[in-house]
Amino acid sequence: MPNTLAYLMLMIWPLVCLILFRRLSLERAMIWSIVGGYLILPPLAKFDLPLVPEMDKFSIPNISAFVICVFVLQKKVAFWPQSAIARILTALFVLSVIPTVATNNDPLLFRVLPNSVSIPFIVGQLPALTARDLFSMLIGQIIVLLPFLMARQYLSTPAGLRDLVLALAIGGLVYAIPALIEIRLSPQINIWVYGFFQHSFTQMMRDGGFRPIVFLPHALWLALFLVMALVCAATLARTATGKSRTRWSMTTGFLAVVLLLSKSLASLAYGLVFTPAILLLSRKMLIRLSMLLALIAMSYPMLRNADVIPLERILEQARAIDPKREQSLAYRFDNENRLLERADEKPLFGWGGWGRNLLHNPESGKIETIPDGRWIIVFGSSGWVGYIAEMGMLAFPLLLLGWRMRTLPNARISPFVAPIAVILAATMADMLLNATLIPITWMCAGAILGYAERLKQPRQHAGSEPAYGDGPVIGRAGDPNGPEQGQRPLM
Hints:
single chain, 2 domains, two-stranded antiparallel sheet, two-stranded antiparallel ribbon, globular
C-alpha cells in the first residue's frame, strides 16, 4: 500500500506546477509539470473521487498545468484543431464513449449450477454502465487530451519543440542514475520512497540481473522513456556545435549503455534503429519513416483479423533469440486471439470499463485473459470507433506533417520536429506490445500537429518561412514574446 508520502506528493503537485509556471517560461513549465509528474509521482496511488476519473500521476499533472495556464496565467488553449479531419477525430475521441455506455447497460452475471439443484446461484457480476460512468468517461477523455491541446498551442514552434527535446534528454539523463542503482541493487527505490512495490518483482528479473523501474508502472515503461531520451540526446548532439556537441555525444553514449543494461529487447531494438537514423538521415526521411511506422501500427488490428501478420515466423525469430522470449510472445498472441474473439461480439463500440472486455470464467468470474498491448485494450473496451479515434489522433499529426513538408526544402523544417515524430511513431509501435500510452505521447502528438498546421502551403509561404540549419536554435525568431516570424498563433 502507498504510504503517506505517496498521497502527499499527489496533493502538493499542483503547487509544484504553480512554482514551475512562476519561475520558468510557459513552454518549459508546461513540459516539466507533465514530464516531472510522470517521472516523480508514485504509481498506482490515486484519489478515487465520486463522479470523476481517478486522480493519479497521469491526470493530476495534466489538470494542474491546464488550470494554471488558462485560469492563473489567462492563456488561451483552443480545443478544436484547424484541420477538419483532426476536428472529427477529436470529437470522435471524446464522444465515442456515449454509444459505448448506451450499448453496455446490462450487467454481466456469473452463475454456477450445483449438481443437486436446478436453480443457478449468481456468484458474481460486472456492473452495467450507467449515466454516472458516462460522465466520468467523458471527463476522463478530456483530461487525457489536455497535454495534446496545450502542446499544439504552445510547443509547436521550433523553440517549443527544442524545449521538449531538451527536457526529455535531461529527464532521461537524470533518471538514468536511479535506474543504474536498481540495475545493481534490484528495484527498490519505489519501496524506499513510497513504501510499496508497484508490480510483480519476478518480471523485473531478466538474464541473471535486474530491470529498473524506479517510479514508473513497469520496467518496459522506463526502457521506452530511455529510448525517448536517447533519441533527443542524439538530436542535440547532431544540432549542437563545439563543446556542447561533445557533451551531448557523451550523453548519447551513456544513455545507450543504460538502455542496454535495462534488458528490454523491444526498446533496445528501437534504440539500435532510431539512434543511427537520427544521426544520419535527413529530417524528411525521419518524418517519412515515422509516418510508415505509424501507419503499420494503426493497421495492425486489421492485419491481425485478416491473418496477414506472420505470427509463426515471428515466434521462430523469437525462439532463435531466446526460448523464453518465444514463450512470452506466444502467451501474448494467444491472449490477443481470445480477446479479439471477445471484441468481435461488440465490434463497433466495445464493452466499456469494469473489465467487461476481458474473458472471465463463466462460473467463478475469475479473469482468464491478460491484455498487454494498448491496441487490444482500446479495441475491446471502445470498439473500432474508439480505436480509430485514439490511433487516428496519434497518427494524423504525422500524416499531416508529411503532407505539408512534401515540397519544402529540408532546411525549412525544424531539426527538432523530426525526433518528436520518431518518438511518437516508436511509442505507437510499442503500443502493439504494451500499454505505454502516456501524457508525454499526447504532448508529442499535439506539438507535431501544431507545427504541421503552422506550415503554410508552398505558394503562400515562399520566402517567409525561416530556414533551420544543423546548429542549435536559441529562442524564437522575431519577437521573443510573440509567435514565430512568418507564422500565426494557433488560437
